[in-house]
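subagent[fold] <- orchestrator: predict structure for attached chain, return tokens only, no commentary.
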Amino acid sequence: MSSTIYLEGGGDSHEGRIRCQKGFRKLLERCGYAGRMPKLVACGGRGAAFDDFKIALANARKGDFVALWIDSEDPMVDVEATWEHLKARDGWDRPKDATNEQVLLMTTCMETLIVADRATLTDHYGADLQESGLPSLHDLEGRPRDAIQKALIQATRNCSNAYTKGKRSFEVLAELDPATLIKYLASFARIRRILDTSLRA
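subagent[fold] -> orchestrator:
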């Protein structure tokens, strides 16, 4: 049996997609999945990831784990109701036989994960990080993605490695502490729970 996760991220370039895959792979290794790592496929945009997921799902064998890991884009009323959220926001219909557990949503975006881990941010960016410019850790998942992204860019603007989408975003992702993410983000705790059950050694 196989495990494959289709990722949003990496843009249109081969290099960008490789960086995306590496960032998520290192995060999953930090979660303890090194011996049962799924195949990670960076697809660029969220629509492309959904299309690739649907094709893989239609061709999956019994027992295979096929998942879609993307941004929720907007806050969620219920982090478990993934297909309901995607239908309301994107107009996406749940593929036949797909379950809510096959959709791993970052609420509201990948930057929410990064902003949640202040210790890693401080280590990564150093003394020039303006932590006071970051949003409160309270109800991070309820904040608009644009506000999270702008705050992160603003807080790192004086750093030599200021935050940008792409190479630098996946470098930070790879360094995040899963325990911290679980503490502050219900959506990440959900992802861990699903992967603990679905990934087989």
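orchestrator: received. Logging for downstream: Residues 14-30 form the longest helix (17 residues). The first strand starts at residue 3 and ends at 7.
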